[in-house]
Amino acid sequence: MSEAEKFDAIVVGAGPAGSAAAHTMAKAGLGVVLLERGDYPGAKNVMGGVMYGRMLADVIPDFMTHAPIERVIVEERLWIATDDSAVSIGHKTANSHGEIPNAFTVLRAPFDRWFASKAEEAGALLVTGTVVEDVILDNGRVAGVRTGRADGDLLADVVVICDGVHSFLAKRAGLQQREIEPHEVALAVKEIIALPKETIQERFNVSEGEGATIEIYGTVTQGMGGYAFIYTNRESLSVGAGALMSHFMKTKITPYALLERVKQHPLVRPLIAGGQVVEYLAHAIPEGGYKAMPKLYTDGALIAGDAAMMVNGLHREGSNLAITAGRLAAETVIEAKAKGDFSAQSLSAYREKLQHSFVLKDLQKYQHLPEFIDRHSDLLGIYPDLVNHAVHEMLTVDGMSKREKQKKIWRDLTARRSLWQLLKDGYQTWKVIR
Amino acid sequence: MKIEEKLFLLTYKHDKQTHITIRSNEPCVNQCGAQWGRPCTTFCPANVYNWDGEKIAVSYENCVECTSCLTGCPYQNIDWRLPRGGFGVQYRNG
């Protein structure tokens, strides 16, 4: 390359946001290059494992016939757990097999590879093993990227930044001015534990192709704000745990010891017994929410996905926000191309589209949650204990009358937490999630 | 299962040059030990950072690129960059 090549759009990062953006633009006939630093898409990418069908179908309507999905989720359980017991709340449905299933598990290495290949089929040029080191600025507007390759400058009308959590390019493009704070990021670790599919189906009471999820809140995070999870794949389980970085820094708990303790929990152990750990993975999750988001557009650039803090931690959503944001970024670029105007003013339509979608609405709804979890992680120690104690007491048939039991539960409860404090906890929690 | 065994399960494409450097030994020695107890030696999920008595020793070849050290160092003292294209961890499952 003697002269830098010029594309309509450069997409940085072949994760869910990047591949959705590249696919949407390429399908509309734009010249798109999709850059990925791993040897293959997904080589660097980790998530718990639950993805949502509707947003993927918005990009690839027939994905169910060929996407590498693991199991369609038919049951979701929430365990409010102590060290040796749990109150379990759940939902199971026999009606999740519509054409587009609500939720399913994926393994990101095969999934991301597949999704990027769909973008290629649509006409995007996928270039792997290539790090983007900087943006190229031309009179203050983003005009391309500098890659780590020799003669690796690429020019384009627009750069769509999807380079993940702790986005370097967000800073280079002037979208993010400050450093991300430790309470705005969680760190999660997980293991892929291989088990025969029959064993998984028996243990989780599901049929072939169907799966279950378990989220565990309580003492499993040892006083830190976070949770543990077990998700079923075809022939493995994804077992993991995560908590805020600010809490890892304070407690000095190592993430691998945290996960080992989850695996030793007496309610978890039988589910994973006999399994073989085949991979250990770790990743940061942007949990800062709405208030920690960077600017979403500038002259010649847009940002989507983890790079833009698009994670709804409470609802275990992230990849769906990324896919929708990637698609909306692409639609904005397609319109900008028709107008021949790639200024910030023109690209601001992206923010409006996000504002009309669930992406910004949900992030706005929970905007105060990140600080709350940072300050009140002790509630995850107190309440699971109280709830388990109360239910255990009610279920124990020992000759004490039920009215006596109720009185005893109330006495035990208010001994641990005053009525005033209970009301305050309830009000504050309601305020951040209402 | 020990962390060494966990890391042994991973596939890496090793680079001869490091992508991680400690900017200055000074805060690690004079401030972080007393004020924070050197959290990089505990939060890093791949055990990249170890205190050898005088400085933080960096086992960059263990790094799984989770990026937690970009926020986890109280002194912003870890210069962590993306490994060169194609190098580093290569998850098979993800």
Structural class given helices, strands, pairing of chain B?
alpha+beta
- Give the largest interface pair and sizes: A-B, 55 and 37 residues
Radius of gyration of chain B from CA coordinates: 14 Å
Largest sheet of chain B: 2 strands, antiparallel
Highlighted features:
heterodimer, A: 434 residues, alpha/beta, FAD/NAD(P)-binding domain, D-Amino Acid Oxidase, Chain A, domain 2, 3 domains, nine-stranded mixed β-sheet, eight-stranded mixed β-sheet, 16 helices, globular, B: 94 residues, alpha+beta, Alpha-Beta Plaits, two-stranded antiparallel ribbon, two-stranded antiparallel sheet, 4 helices, 17% strand
Element layout with pairings:
The complex is a heterodimer of chains A (434) and B (94).
Chain A lengths: L4 E8 L3 H12 L4 E4 L14 E3 H5 L11 E13 L4 E7 L10 E4 L1 H14 L3 E3 L4 E7 L2 E7 L5 E9 L6 H5 L12 E10 L2 H8 L5 E9 L7 E7 L3 E9 H7 L3 H10 L4 H4 L3 E11 L10 E2 L2 E3 L15 H21 L4 H4 L1 H8 L1 H8 L3 H7 L3 H17 L6 H15 L2 H15 L1
Parallel strand pairs in A: 1-2, 1-10, 2-7, 4-12, 10-17
Antiparallel strand pairs in A: 3-6, 4-5, 4-6, 8-9, 9-10, 11-14, 11-15, 12-13, 13-14, 16-17
Chain B lengths: L2 H6 L3 E2 L6 E3 L2 H11 L4 H4 L5 E3 L4 E3 L10 H4 L5 E3 L7 E2 L5
Antiparallel strand pairs in B: 1-6, 2-5, 3-4
